[in-house]
Amino acid sequence: MSEGHPAAGQGEWRRTPPPLLRPGVVHVWRIRIDGVATAADWAVLSPEEDGRARRFFAERHQRRYVVAHANLRRILSAYAGMAPNELAFRTGQYGKPELVGAPSATLVEFNLSHSGDLALVAVARDRPVGVDVERWNDRVEHIELATRFFSPVERDALQRLAPSHADVVEGFFSAWSRKEAYLKASGHGIARGLDHFDVSLTPGQPARILRDHLDDGAPSRWTMTALAAREGYSAALVAAKPVDEILLFDAT
Question: pLDDT tens for residues 76-122?
């Protein structure tokens, strides 16, 4: 698969049961988190997740957290061959969650992101993955934030979109989701900063890692794909190459 182009199989989000997760294939699950958090959702959370959920001041934030993490457990349980409430997680060196426990669980690589009323879960069996979704907000100072956090190449690209406010909004959140997905996939997290690498952001152009100034070989080892999560959202998937197919599923 060439860098920046959708993998074979990516298309409409489907409700059909997923096929076996084969090497070279990534599954992405879309979760609506604007519904009610049911007793069944609360029941599958770990004591740590339950405690964190109860500390949210705003009810909508609590609801979104519970629905997202309950569905994450249900999704991963099918791949790991364990009950949702039996899954155990640990945090990697830079904060990325990992499954632990049975051998079937430790083979599963995953990543969760949520924004607004939407969550995405990426799952692979033989390669690290990162996913990010960002709801658009046209009231923030996009150019100012890009000046603070983006690379010079990205800042210049966003400035060129400035005559069109809509393009600036889309370009900004496309870049942000791609940068977050890359940092999550690589395992370094945001602590490494956002300005040491360049991604494409111009609307209509393929998602690409253009350059990592701390890792010259990164573009040849990682594939980046934009995901059409929902109108008004930007989303991106990054996974270690080769990725032959990306399949999209609706969980709720």
Answer: 999 998 899 999 998 877 778 889 876 666 688 999 999 999 999 99
Q: Which two tokens stand for residue 233?
A: 């959202």
Count of C-beta atoms within a 10 Å radius of residue 70: 24
Average pLDDT score, the chain: 92
Give the residue extent of every domain in the chain: 25-250
pLDDT of 84 reads 95
Architecture of domain 25-250: Alpha-Beta Complex (3.90)
pLDDT in tens, 215-228: 999 999 999 999 99
- Taking 80 as the threshold, does the pLDDT of residue 247 lie above it? yes
Q: Which two tokens stand for residue 56?
A: 């949210």
Annotate 50-110 with three-state secondary structure.
HHHHHCCCCHHHHHHHHHHHHHHHHHHHHHHCCCHHHCEEEECCCCCEEEECCHHHHCCEE
H/E/C letters for each residue in the chain? Answer: CCCCCCCECCCCCECCCCCCCCCCEEEEEEEECCCCCCHHHHHHCCHHHHHHHHCCCCHHHHHHHHHHHHHHHHHHHHHHCCCHHHCEEEECCCCCEEEECCHHHHCCEEEEEEECCEEEEEEECCCCEEEEEEECCCCCCHHHHHHHHCCHHHHHHHHHCCCCHHHHHHHHHHHHHHHHHHHHHHCCCHHHCCCCEEECCCCCCCCCEEEECCCCCHHHHEEEEEECCCCCEEEEEEEECCCCEEEEEECC
pLDDT for position 102: 66
Give Rg (Cα) of the chain: 18
